[in-house]
Design brief:
The protein has nine helices and nine strands. The protein is of the alpha/beta class and 253 residues long. Strands 3-2-1-4-5-6-9 form a seven-stranded parallel beta sheet, sandwiched between helices. It has a two-stranded parallel ribbon with strand order 7-8. Strand 5, helix 6 and strand 6 form a beta-alpha-beta unit. It is globular. Bound molecules: NADP nicotinamide-adenine-dinucleotide phosphate. NADP nicotinamide-adenine-dinucleotide phosphate binds next to helix 1 and helix 5.
Length: 253
Amino acid sequence: MKDALGSVESVLVLGGGSEIAQATVDKLVAGRTKTVVLAARNPDSLADYARALESHGASKVEALKFDALDFDSHAAFVEDVFSVHGSFDLVVLAFGVLGDQAKDEQDPKSAVHVIESNFTGAASILLHVAQRLKKQGHGSIVALSTVAGERARAANYIYGSSKAGLDAFCQGLGDSLVGTGVSLMIVRPGFVTTKMTAGMDVKPMATDADSVANVIIDGLAKGREIVWAPAKLRFVFSVMRHLPRPVFRKIKA
Ligand SMILES: NC(=O)c1ccc[n+]([C@@H]2O[C@H](COP(=O)([O-])OP(=O)(O)OC[C@H]3O[C@@H](n4cnc5c(N)ncnc54)[C@H](OP(=O)(O)O)[C@@H]3O)[C@@H](O)[C@H]2O)c1
C-alpha cells in the first residue's frame, strides 16, 4: 500500500536488469520505497544490485526468474509474486529487445523474437498484472515504449512496429483501467545511452537512464498518462508524424 504521503512503498520490475528501470528504482528507494522485486531472465546476475538497494534503504529486495517469452508461465508468475508480497503500488514493464534490423530482415525468426518479446510478451504479462492490480483496487503500471513506435522508419521498423503495438495496447489498457483505482503511464524515450544502444551512433536529443528515470518519477507524481524523454520529443514527433512520406524517408537521424 502507498504510505500516508502517497509514496510508492513496493515495486515489481519486469526486466530487472534494465538500466532505465534500475535508475528509476534507485530514485524510488532514495524516496520511500521499501520492497523491490526484480524479475529477470537471470536473477542471479542481479545479486550485487539487490545488495546495493538494501544498503540504500530497501528492506525487502528479491530477484525472481521471469522470461517475457515464456507466455505459459505468466499466470503463475503473477499469482505467486502477488501472493508472497500481498500487493504492489507500482509495476514497471521495462524488458525489451532492440534486435539487429539488418540481420532480422534476413532472418524472420529473429525478427519474430523481437516482436514477441516487445509486444506479445508484454501484452501477456500486462493482462495478468492488470487483473491482479484491479483486484487489489490500486496501483500504477509504467510501460517503457519508445518514440520509435510513433512512426516506423526503414532503418528500424521491426523494433518500431513491435513497440507501436505495445504503445497502442497500453493506451487501450490504460483507458480500460479508468475508474478501477489502477493507472497506466506510457513512457516514450528517444535514444538512451544504455547497454541496449551500446556501440551505436548517438542520435540527436539523446538522453541517459538517469534523466529518463527523472521523467518517470515526475510523471508518476503528477499522475501523467504519457511522458516523453526528453519532453521536447513530443513536439518533434508530432511534426514527424505528419511529414509527407517522401520527406520522412530522407531523414536519417
Ligand atoms: N535504450 C534506449 O535507447 C531506449 C529508448 C526507448 C525505449 N527503450 C525501452 O526501454 C526499456 C528499457 O531499456 P534499457 O535501455 O534499460 O535497456 P537494457 O538495459 O538493455 O534493458 C533491457 C532489459 O530487457 C530484458 N529482457 C530482454 N528480453 C527479455 C525477456 N524475454 N524476458 C525478460 N527480460 C528480458 C534484458 O534482460 P537481460 O539482462 O537478461 O538481457 C534487459 O535487462 C526497453 O523496453 C526498451 O525498448 C530504450
